Structures are given as structure tokens and as C-alpha cells.
From TrEMBL:
Example GO BP: cellulose catabolic process
Species of the source: Streptomyces zinciresistens K42
Keywords from the UniProt entry: Carbohydrate metabolism, Cellulose degradation, Glycosidase, Hydrolase, Polysaccharide degradation
Molecular function GO labels: beta-glucosidase activity
The protein's name: Beta-glucosidase
Highest classification ranks of the organism: Bacteria, Bacillati, Actinomycetota, Actinomycetes, Kitasatosporales
Family: Belongs to the glycosyl hydrolase 1 family.
GO cellular component, one term: cytosol
InterPro entries listed in its UniProt record: GH, GH_1_N_CS, Glyco_hydro_1, Glyco_hydro_1_AS, Glyco_hydro_1_beta-glucosidase
Active site as annotated: 178, 383
Gene3D superfamilies given in the database record: Glycosidases (3.20.20.80)
Catalysis performed (reactions): Hydrolysis of terminal, non-reducing beta-D-glucosyl residues with release of beta-D-glucose
Class of this enzyme: hydrolase
Amino acid sequence: MVIAAQQGEPGQDGARTFPEGFLWGSATASYQIEGAAAEDGRTPSIWDTYARTPGRVRNGDTGDVATDHYHRWREDVALMAELGLGAYRFSLAWPRIQPTGRGPAVQKGLDFYRRLVDDLLAKGIRPVATLYHWDLPQESEDAGGWPERVTAERFAEYAALAADALGDRVTTWTTLNEPWCSAFLGYGSGVHAPGRTDPVAALRAAHHLNLAHGMAVEALRDRLPSAGQCSVTLNIHQVRALTGAPGDADAVRRIDALANRVFTGPMLRGEYPEDLLKDTAGLTDWAFVRDGDLRRIHQPLDFLGVNYYTPTLVSEAGGAGSHTSDGHGDSAHSPWPAAERVAFHQPPGDTTAMGWAVDPTGLYDLLRRLADDFPRLPLVVTENGAAFDDYAGPDGRVEDPGRIAYLRGHLAAVHRAIADGADVRGYFLWSLLDNFEWAHGYSKRFGTVYVDYPTGTRTPKASARWYAEVARSGVLPA
Ligand code: FCB
């Protein structure tokens, strides 16, 4: 028998019991799994364009077919049910619902998500919909993209269309997934679509993503029933100093501002951090922030979604311009505006196939810090997981002990954070399926379900079975 843990301590048998009602899920994103890129009225997104640009995505891979989820969604929902998931986090493809980024919704696009959601609900799986997981309609980028205010205004219109169509059945909504990546990888280092490399555009994009979030929450609140939940998902960086030197502490402060507080400041406190404005004053005066913007961005949220994979280790750079890899891809352009004197280091420890250090204490520290900084805001881990070089053995089975160890360590960290007072309500593993890992194409497998790309065949890996048992029981075994 499992002995229920008290006060979050492991039971006598070492098992950790999660709170009643804790949400267990898996996550995906539209461009990474759907395929059917030109079907039913969908127009290209910035990722279709980027993937078609030679040299941008490994092996020339695109999301044209991906895991073909657009056609195999029924099978995928059946798998989720078989794997005991209580919730499924997915994203809506803006160019499928509102193809040119403006105007009326396309019925077929909405119908796809309606059918998906109805099937999830029929199987007792809670749908958690993200409005934007990086697939901006190309026409919106052509009209200026996230550096321009008009994109935030258009996003609010799209949010309204989505809520009108799905708000009766989807109660849990997330506006943006990782706006840091959209702004700083998309417009700063260029390792994500649309591939621009302009630090000022990146800062402008960050503000207009903030504004898009606030305006979308307004649109959702106007339309959702009172039980509707609104959130945003941030990839809060757990930034650590290489040494105790004051210069390293300042590097942490600077990167924390550019990675985290540029979003949590306006969204959760209604202001941009003073130090961020000062650090970036040589690039911009932030005149694009208009009167009233901060009030609109600062919306009450029902929870904060947190994505975590690995910590970020920094120091003061030895000499000017010594930019080292920060784990966010290789580019001659830094995603960190006005941070030329910060050096990035590989954190110690084993790494996953992404080269990312495995460090569950980073997740613990992150959750604890958020609980301290925003005490009344519930948290949900909306992504956590690992890529490994998985393959099917001769018997067809996919053994992935590395992923199980990763998940075990990180779930224990979540459990400990809850025991120490963090109000964490759920955990979504990234990812349900192997999928298109952005600039890495199909070379990195994050799924707990193996996808054989030539045939589309799905095979649950050992980790899927392991996680199913945790989700079913709410207990992390010793
Ligand atoms: C996150 C993204 C997600 C996936 C994981 C590995 O930054 O939100 O789509 O690519 O990383």
C-alpha cells in the first residue's frame, strides 16, 4: 500500500503523493504536430516561410506533414486516454482560424478544434488551449510583425474569434507561449522565425507581445463564462551566477531583466523594471510604450504557466563582446540586447540530446522564487521534458530510461516546491509526441510517444507508460 505523504515529505516507502486535484497532462503545439499546412484554408505562418528558407532548419525539415495530427487527431486523443492523461495542452494555429491574420474566421479551421475538444471532453481530458505558440500568419509579419502595434490589435481580434467559437467548451486558456522566444529568438538572434536580427525590433516585439497578452485577456474575459481561466506561459529563466563576484551578480540581474522581468513586470506588476529601461537606454527610449498600455497589460490571471528545461549560468564577460552559447542556438547575433558584457556558460551535469544540463533544482528554485514574488498567483508547469536519441528496438519497443529519470527528478522537485509552499496546480510534460523541434527539425525527439515519421506510426515509449501510472495514481514512486 502507498503511504500518503504528509506535509509533502516522501512516505515511508519513498513515494511522493501529489495534492488532490493536481492536473496531469501532456503538451504539444500546432506547427510542431499538425501538418496539413495548406489544407482547409490555412495560409503560411512565419514558420512555414522560415522552414523553407535554405539553411534555417536542420535538414531542410518543414512542418508540412509533421506528425499528421490534423488527420490522426482521433488516434492521438485515444492514446491520451489510454495513457491516463487528465489534461491536454495544445495550441490553435492562428493561420488556420484566421488565415491572413485579419477578417472573419474560417469555419473549417474552427471545426477541427471543435471536434478535437469535444473528443477530449468525451474522454474526460481537460483541454487547455494556447492561442499563440509561434505560428504568426505570414501576412501579419509582412505588415510589420510583433515589433508593430497593429499585430497586438489583430491578435486581440483573433482571440475574440477563438473564444466565440470555443469558449463554451474550453475553459482554460493561455494567451502566449514563451513570448521571450518570439521576441528575442525571432527578432534578435534570428534562430527562430521570422529570423530577423535587430535588437530594437526584439524589444519592440516584447512590448507588443505584452500588449497582445493584455488585450487578448480582455477579449477572453468578455466572452468566457465566469469559470473561464486565463493565463500566460513564460519560459522563466533560472539564472545563476558563475561565481560570487559582484560582476557576476550584475550579469544575473541583467539577464533576469531581459529574460523574465520584461514580461512579469508589466503583466504581473503593471510596470517595466527600471533597471531594464536603464540597461537598454542606449538602444531605445521605449517611446513605443503608450499611455494606457501598462494598465491593459496588467490583467488579473488565474495562473501563471511556467516552462522549464535547464538553468542559465552567467558571468561578467572577460572582455567586450565575448558572447558564448546560451543554449538557445547558434547565431552571430545575440538574443540579449545590451548584454555584450555577459558571458554564458554550460551548467554542470549530464546533458540531454539538446545539450541542455539536467538540473531539477533549477525547477525547484524557480517555483519557490515565483511563489515568493507573486504569492497569490497559482502556478502550473506547462512544459518540462527532455530530448534523447530514442529508437525502436528489434521488438519494436522504445526504452527511454533517461527520460524517465529526467521526469522523476523534475517531478520530485515540483513536489518539494509544493511542500515548501509553492501553489503548483499541475504539470504538463513536453511532449506527448515526437515532433518538429523548430530549428532542429525532426532530429530531436521530446515525445513520450515515438513517431515513425515515414509511416506516422505511434509507439508509446517506456516513459509514456511510466507517466501514465504517475498520472493515474497521483503518486511519484520511489
Ligand atoms: C519550448 C517550446 C516547445 C518545445 C520545447 C522543447 O521552448 O515552447 O515548443 O520546442 O521548448
